[in-house]
């Protein structure tokens, strides 16, 4: 009971910190960084704006829980014999959020890109959340397979593993640095309209690649659920960029 309490205590602490950081970053980016002439308000009224935000949040939550719980249910020994452990994932949340956002925009005739508004919050929120994954070790199921590489990390079970959480944090830090650099360059307008799609492509290419060294289920023709959803997400990012730039 103590181990379970400690796990959820740590998990909730880091997740909550990540959510608060994401909210502040999103607000700051929208209010202080983006000028009205760079990204016109796509909503016809305040009600539509809040409907959009609530829909995306709901879609992200549903996608994160359903995909992670489904994938976890396929891993032998992960769940108790009398039930299934509910869980959530960033990849699943992005998948659900993107589908919900694009469906809402299609039904309401919105053409202006909106993903860029969430980008800083997503990157910083996930970065902080990965500290929680490290702190909870193998209980979080985001770790890598055992490795003999010199940077293998012991995640509280005595086995040196690929520190996939750190791999992801490095990726996010590098991407955010590049994004900030280009945001204050002659390419600013291009990044405002394409930055979110670049992130989706980069992040899901990473998730597809790292899936080969993570202990997820592989019943989709040798691929995990996260690798499978990475394929349409990368395709989406490439298609949206070509649609807006050609």
Distance, first to last CA: 57 Å
Into which percentage range does the β-strand content fall? under 5%
Low-confidence stretches: none
Spatial extent as radius of gyration: 19 Å
The geometry reads as globular
* Helix proportion: 55-70%
Q: How many separate helices? A: 7
SSE string, helices as H and strands as E: HHHHEEHHH
Structural class: mainly alpha
Count of individual beta strands: 2
Main beta sheet: strand number and arrangement? 2 strands, antiparallel
The total tally of domains equals 1
- What order do the strands of the largest sheet run in, or round the barrel if closed? 1-2
Task: Describe it.
The chain is an all-alpha fold and 246 residues long. It is built from 7 helices and 2 strands; from the N terminus they run ααααββααα. The chain has one domain. It is 65% helix and 2% strand. Strands 1-2 form a two-stranded antiparallel sheet. Strand 1 (153-154) and strand 2 form a beta hairpin. The termini are far apart. The model has no long low-confidence stretch (mean pLDDT 90).
């Amino acid at each position: 009971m103590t181990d379970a309490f400690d796990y959820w205590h740590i998990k909730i602490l880091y997740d909550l910190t990540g959510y608060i950081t994401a909210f502040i970053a999103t607000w700051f980016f929208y209010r202080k960084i983006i000028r009205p002439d760079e990204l016109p308000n796509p909503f016809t009224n305040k009600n539509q704006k809040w409907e959009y935000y609530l829909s995306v949040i709901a879609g992200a939550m549903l996608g994160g829980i359903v995909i992670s719980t489904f994938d976890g249910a396929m891993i032998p020994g992960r769940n108790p014999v009398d039930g299934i452990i509910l869980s959530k994932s960033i990849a699943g949340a992005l998948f659900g959020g993107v589908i919900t956002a694009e469906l809402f925009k299609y039904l309401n005739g919105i053409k202006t890109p909106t993903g860029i508004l969430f980008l800083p919050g997503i990157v910083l929120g996930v970065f902080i959340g990965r500290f929680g994954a490290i702190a909870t070790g193998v209980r979080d199921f985001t770790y890598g397979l055992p490795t003999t590489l010199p940077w293998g990390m012991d995640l509280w079970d005595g086995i040196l593993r690929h520190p996939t959480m750190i791999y992801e944090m490095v990726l996010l830090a590098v991407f955010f640095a590049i994004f900030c650099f280009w945001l204050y360059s002659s390419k600013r307008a291009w990044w405002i309209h394409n930055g979110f799609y670049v992130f989706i492509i980069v992040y899901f290419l990473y998730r597809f690649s790292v899936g080969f060294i993570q202990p997820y289920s592989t019943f989709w023709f040798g691929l995990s659920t996260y690798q499978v959803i990475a394929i349409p997400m990368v395709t989406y990012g490439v298609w949206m960029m070509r649609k807006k730039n050609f």
